[in-house]
Amino acid sequence: MDYSRLWFTPPAPDQVPVDLLAPEACPLHGLFRQTWKVGDTDRSIITYIPEGFCQNNRAVIVAPPSDTEPDSFLASSGLGELADRDKLLIAMLEPLAGRWDLSGKDAAFMNAAYKKVQGREYYVVMQDCIYAMGFGDGVDVALEAARTMASDWSGLAVFGDPTIASVQFSAQSHAETDAGSQKEEMYISGKRAQLPVWLLIEQETAVSEQLLAYWEKENHAQPQPLYDEKKTAIFLPAAVKDTSKINEDDIAQTRLTTGFRLQDLNFDTLSYVWAYIGSARRHRSYGNKILRYFRNPLEHGATYHTLIVDGMKREWYEYVPKKVQQKGEPVPLVCVFHGRGGNGETFFDITEMSVVAEERGFIAVFPTADLYQIRKGGFRGVRLWNGSQNGRPFDSLPFVRKMIADVESRLPVDKGRIYACGQSSGGFMSSYCAMAASDLFTAVTPWSGFSLPDDPDAGDFTYRRETAFEDGKVPMMLLVGKEDRFFGASAAWPLDEHNLLHRFIRYIIRTYELQEEPLQYTCYPIDYYVWHNGSAVPMFVIGLVNDMPHANYPEESWISYDQFLCRYSRDETGARCYLGRKIE
Predict the structure, then answer these.
(1) Same domain, 264 and 239
(2) Are residues 166 and 287 in the same domain?
(3) 79, 123, 188, 426: least surrounded by Cβ within 10 Å?
(4) How far is it, in rounded angstroms, from Cα 49 to Cα 579?
């Protein structure tokens, strides 16, 4: 393809059109340049968006050879064809003065480009799932960028001989790496971590040996490699780890291909490398961003469903365990709400709630939220529960009710055990369901988000209905990271009265008429605080997660269901029960 014909100038972000009947589609496609200040210097990236790119797909950031034109390199390297086939967003760095600065400045620029791509300016990419590639003299830039932000990248591939061992130079140490902010869920941890790495070089040198040894160590590699049919040395991670694989699995291989020449690069080689590098996903957790293989919903037993509600296409993924399909007996239903900027497809993977559903025997649904303009003058296609479009507010609840009614019409749902959980905006939505639809939901477990009535500081977490809990108080367990800057939860317990989380706790205690002082216990990494009603029923639980930012991690799904949701039900009269006994 002649990519030179695809250059365009994008409109202002708030003028990018959004189709309510295809809100997942990115209306922009082609090549365009973005320029912004990195430090005190104007820097640019060339972004390629293929036709058919959908919001929340993956992105690759590329340091190309410094002497190449971006549109011609898309064609000659096979990058354009790969992007067209897999619907990937490609962002290519532009060097200054026609050469790469190997002092570490251009590695820092590549990491700044990571933040720019994740910034939701004209499009939305899958959060934290961005990959690094370097070609020719751009190899050293990509190697150092990935080394200083290993815990943020999802994979690294370099095509060409490195000239400087990345372990020897760095403009920033790990401790100095910019941690970003959480104003819009941006979070850069910049820590050492396992990372899938593929080095394609012409010949082994002292530099390549140092790099290989560095990544073998970081990825806990076994000493002896395996070899594929292309004679690539594959160093697998250790076969056994000392902790569970619920949150993170040791999947990062270190691969080395010798005899590679950049002039021989083509689509087949690039596609072969991408098949491994692109299979990993990075997600947030406590302690670090975690790495796992991606679980596509449709490839792992889920089905895709849509409805038109208030003129907008609504979607959800639905997981029905095999044992439920076979027996046909009524089972619980869990609604799993993603955070701002996400969607049901990615949250299926992040939460692993479908695995909990398979093991515990309930139906799980993963819906996608409304639309939202994330900042003044910004893109209007970011997903948010109870969002808005052109000044018109959305109420997500009619869609949620119709989705549940649709599921109930086809599947054996126990109407006395309908639950909700979710993260960030999805945490808001799950607690919103408790407040605004207490007739429907039996218990909820929000993660790092909640809905707070009549509070001027609550912003997107504000509950804007006049009434709440009309059909009874809904048991609730809220899990929040102690390093969550949205709520300032890092303060010592008891939280400061000006803390938004503290105000939510006070609201629930007052509304539910609970005891003032909670019972406390710790099960690392979570410190739990439990409030009982007058009948000693735990109606409200807060779990503060040590060393965690604005996030959720897979084990929270098991915790939420096993330790809380499954203990609550409704009897034939509709009364809520705890452990089978009516809550007085």
Answers:
(1) yes
(2) yes
(3) 188
(4) 52
When divided into structural domains, the chain yields a total of 2
Q: Does residue 402 form part of some domain?
A: yes
Strand bridging mode 476-481 / 443-447: parallel
Pairing of strands 526-532, 576-578: unpaired
pLDDT, one tens digit per residue, over 454-483 is 888 888 899 999 999 999 999 999 999 999
Does residue 182 form part of some domain? yes
Tokens of residue 502, six digits: 């503290």
Q: Which residues pair with 393 in a beta bridge?
A: 388
Asked if 214 and 336 sit in the same domain, the reply is no
Token pair listed for 552: 């959720």
Q: Are residues 247 and 320 in the same domain?
A: no
Last residue of a domain, one of 243, 277, 293: 293
The residue among 269, 293, 317 that closes a domain is 293
Same domain, 34 and 137: yes
Tell me the per-residue pLDDT of 234-257, one tens digit each, with 9 for 90 and over: 999 998 888 899 999 999 999 999
Cβ atoms of residues 300 and 219 within 8 Å: no
pLDDT over 90 at 172, yes or no: no
End-to-end CA distance of the chain: 70
Q: Could you tell me the pLDDT band of residue 391, with boundaries at 50, 70 and 90?
A: confident
Collapse the DSSP code of 405 into the 3-class scheme (helix H, G, I; strand E, B; otherwise coil) and give the result.
helix
Q: Is residue 31 part of a domain?
A: yes
CA dist 440 and 419 (Å) reads: 9
Phi first, then psi: what are they for 478, rounded to 5°?
-110, 125
Q: What average pLDDT does this structure show over 42-69?
A: 97
Most confident of 173-182, 497-506, 564-573: 564-573
Say whether both 408 and 287 belong to one domain: no
* CATH number of 175's domain: 3.40.50.1820
* 53 CB neighbour count, 10 Å cutoff: 23
**Could you tell me the two tokens for 545?**
């997660």
Residues 337 and 282 in one domain: no
The pLDDT assigned to 137 comes to 96
Q: State residue 444's pLDDT score.
A: 98
Write the DSSP assignment of 461-498 as a string of letters. GEE--S---TT-PPPEEEEEETT-TTTTTTSPSSPPTT
Pull the structure tokens for residue 377. 């003058």
User: Mean pLDDT of all residues in the chain?
Assistant: 94
Quote the pLDDT of residue 186: 76
Lowest mean pLDDT among 194-198, 494-498, 571-575: 494-498
Query: Tokens at residue 195, please?
Result: 């990372």
DSSP summary character for residue 229: T
- The domain of 257 spans 16-293
Q: What whole-number distance in Å separates Cα of residue 422 and Cα of residue 544?
A: 16
C-alpha span between 433 and 438 (Å, rounded): 7
Q: d(Cα 438, Cα 308) in Å, to the nearest integer?
A: 24
Give the count of beta carbons closer than 10 Å to the beta carbon of residue 370.
25
301 and 230 belong to one structural domain:
no
